[in-house]
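Progress narrative, Year 2. Work on peptidyl-tRNA hydrolase from Nocardia tengchongensis advanced from sequence curation to structure prediction during this period.
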Amino acid sequence: MQMVLHIPKNDPPARSALLAAAASAVVALCLDERVGPGGEWEERYLTWKHSRIRKVARRARGAQWLAAQEVDGVTVEFAGAQARALVPGPVGEVDPRIRRLQISGTELPVEEEIAIDPEFPVLWVDAELGMTVGKAAAQVGHASMLLAGALPVRQAYAWAGTGFRCTVAEADPGHWAELQRRVARGDAVAVRDAGFTEVAPGSTTVIAVP
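Result:
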């Protein structure tokens, strides 16, 4: 799955808002009726889902961002940040308008404080890993998918009604330890990375709390 993050040169979004938009866009696409039975995206989505699920985040601005809107997918805007999750497909068949976008190069600072809204899920990123924006976007996208799959149907439906709104924040080592205990109790879901880029194989990157 290709993900496109809108990062304008002169007025970039807050890192946490951009990651929240990315997480929401991914789960919105995964639960879109067009990937369901008889939907126009069903075959492409199921082929990806039944193989190795991977995500790649790319950055875009200006005309690049507008062009990305023409490629099949779902865009989410949150607190001034925008991200688009594209319908998955083979690596060799990535749309040329997306393939030319850079995967790395632009970083956004981590905010010192994030307002946590208790009405919505929180996706906690392990601060110790120091992941780039692109890597973190892919990881919170994994987390939103796992969380939706773990929720009771009624609760997932209610979350859909909010546009899959969530908060993304970084957890320091002390808080991370408590989050891991919540995962062990079954109160949260964890993303463990395969380790292809940036982090060691098996690293827990994000913990999602309903």
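The helical segments are 15-30, 42-49, 62-68, 96-99, 133-150, 153-161, 173-185. The mean pLDDT is 95.
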